[in-house]
Amino acid sequence: MAEIINMPRLSDTMEEGTVAKWFKKVGDTVSEGDILAEIETDKATMEFESFNEGELLHIGIQEGGTAPVDTLLAIIGKKGEDISALISGGDEPTAKEKTTNETVIPVPAETETVMMPEGVEVITMPRLSDTMEEGTVAKWNKKVGDKVSEGDILAEIETDKATMEFESFYQGELLHIGLQEGESAPVDSVLAVIGRPGTDVGQVVSALATRSESTTSQETEVNPEPAPAKIEIVPEVQSTSPIATPEVSTPPVHSNGRIIASPLAKKLAVEKGIDLSRIQGTGEGGRIIKRDIDQYQPQAGVNLQVFTPRGTESVTEIANSQMRKTIAKRLSASKFSAPHFYLGVEFDMDNAIAFRNQYNSIPDTKISFNDIVVKAVALALKQHPKVNAKWEDHQITQHHHVHVGVAVAVEDGLVVPVVKFTDEQTLPQIGAAVKDYAFRARDKKLKPQEMDGSTFTISNLGMFGIQEFTSIINQPNGAILSVGAIMQKPVVKAGVVVVGNTMKLTLACDHRVVDGATGAQFLQTLREYVENPLTMVL
Q1: Which of 7, 59, 210, 476 makes an SS bond possible with 390, Cβ 3.0 to 4.6 Å?
Q2: Which of 12, 82, 436, 515 is catalytic?
Q3: Cα–chain-centroid distance for residue 533?
């Protein structure tokens, strides 16, 4: 019997995953233990192996595709096995359902099954900004009964940030409007229905309304078969790469000088390096739409050398990776749930510099200032368990073991590998561990368990010349230490102004866990170790 393989949860914080690479294709034989794919989580890219054997019958998420945990990833079974019911998520369709061209929408048990007429498309409230949760219809540009072509502007939608044009990706007749001008609704609410002229969608609209109410009140999922196509909203991007070419027929131009083109058409033009001024649009009122970009053929002999004129506005849009999404979510939660306060100090680093130079004179030995700070922090935490602690709803948990997390910058953001039992390790051992973690973090090869369990975190930007900064607490830690660069400056020693070397550090504390005096005492102990590093090895 065929087995459904779902998107796995590969880390404790993983909510969705991206398929970075498939190692098998549909039709391949799969044995237990074979690597099916590489899955990108919020923390790393990990190999995902099969626990089943048979033939790979179906791939549910293509390379580059992202989906929530437990979403259908693949199906493995016997060669030639019928898996249509598994893909649709229901029972085997009846003979009548197999021969009809209409789609069945399941509705609550007390309501009769309603048939989705062929060619009908349900348009939902789009998410037009990263923070948008609901939208308001500011204006409809079409009314029920009007003809709609691909690329036509259906309405103007007011979001939390701006009022934006919303274009249609379908063609047909506007059969139903779900929200009147001035009305608001959450993202994914029914906005409109488009289909063949004269199609009766009364029962469909009623079923969708019932489904929406059921989903809101009971969190019941209703899955049309097949699922309606999702509407892709592409923000308007102005071309940054016009192409010097001969003049052709001129598309319509707005009064402000902007060429009239759909946002999707503009995006595709940028990707393909096409000058919109050379295209005659076939959309409503001569508007340039996706079809015009797809069908555009440059004339023979055209000079395709790209140039960027002065004054052209340009942007780069980068899709948020799983890591970036998780960083945003966790740090936002930390900043707005934990009451931060900050304690700043400046340490004399002359002895630490001399100590490091002498230590590194030993053959095959090399330690960094970061290693010294990590070791000193670990020893200070052993003496101050109130700082080595975390807040929980019913208690404060103080750790008597020390696991120091060290923030490492990677391409998509940062990760925090953990040096376990840091106080028990030597300086060279700490240095080797941190270097190994940093190297593998940049290749996304860290294991989840290597990033779990920190009791305190250090973020060091000194190597970038940053003198002083503050960090957001890496929850569930109760504090985080920000380490700046070592700087030469005039200092007073024994009543005489001399050239000294100092380093600024900032301790961010969760005031629910760490009080001001507690944090200050911890920094005093830390100062003793850093300014007299020999005490750490005696």
Answers
A1: 476
A2: 515
A3: 41
User: Rounded mean pLDDT of the chain?
Assistant: 81
**Residue 13 belongs to a domain with what CATH number?**
2.40.50.100
Reported as a pLDDT band with limits 50, 70 and 90, residue 483 is very high
Nearest to 75 by CA among 140, 30, 108: 30
Q: Cα 416–440–24 angle (5° rounding)?
A: 115
59 close to 74: Cβ distance less than 8 angstroms: yes
- Could you confirm whether 176 is annotated as catalytic? no
The Cα 463–Cα 344 span in angstroms is 19
And the tokens for 66?
A: 């992202």
Q: Is 340 a catalytic residue?
A: no
SS3 content of the chain, % helix, strand, coil (to 5): 25, 30, 45
Tell me the per-residue pLDDT of 277-314, one tens digit each, with 9 for 90 and over: 888 888 767 778 888 888 888 765 554 444 455 567 78
Instruction: Give, in degrees to the nearest 5, the angle at Cα 29 between 26 and 30.
Output: 100
Per-residue pLDDT tens digits for 429-455 = 999 999 999 999 888 888 888 999 999
pTM of the model: 0.50
Q: Which domain holds residue 476?
A: 322-536
Element of type H or E holding 407: none
Which residue of the set 188, 348, 452, 511 is catalytic?
511
Q: What is the count of structural domains for the chain? A: 4
Asked whether residue 72 falls in the same domain as residue 106, the answer is: no
The span from the CA of 415 to the CA of 447, in Å, is: 11
pLDDT the model gives residue 203:
83
